[in-house]
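The following record pairs a protein chain with its ligand, shikimate-3-phosphate.
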Amino acid sequence: MKVVLVGYMASGKSSVGRLLAKEIGLDFVDLDTYIEEQQQQSIKDIFQQKGEIFFRKLEHQMLEKVLSEKESLLLSTGGGTPCYGINMDTILKHSDHSIYLQLPVSTLVERIAQEKEERPLVKDLDDEELAEFVGKHLFERRPFYARAKFTLDCYGKSVEDLVSEIKGNLL
Ligand code: S3P
């Protein structure tokens, strides 16, 4: 079985993915970590040294590779993955379940503000700019995320709640 999680930065894709994979016995792959391992370079450095266009091409290749080479897995994508090229088609074609972890802008802004330095797209924004950026960006990206087979409202729910909801209702 192949399950793919999509959603904006800081929506919980990695933490929900890791626990869910463990509970249902699937291999867990975080696409950002997979890219870093394959390239032997951090995402932050790839953005800084080679630029976003290079990163997006690489992200597409790595998405195709991981989804076609693994029989079954739980894949957490990067926040931008579904929103470039044919990536969302690739996700839908190769997965049995695709789930959008949905959160309101305010929650995402609060979470991202705590760990801005690690995130190349927002690291140079101040708090006010961050809120505006996330609002606009999510508006542009939501249609891509919404193509996932399921949209899961994550507001106010713990990782454990989300995992049992996915196990009980979606899988
Ligand atoms: C990105 C999100 C990041 C990472 C890269 C670009 C984005 O992943 O892929 O920094 O475009 O939203 P997370 O969603 O895991 O932070």
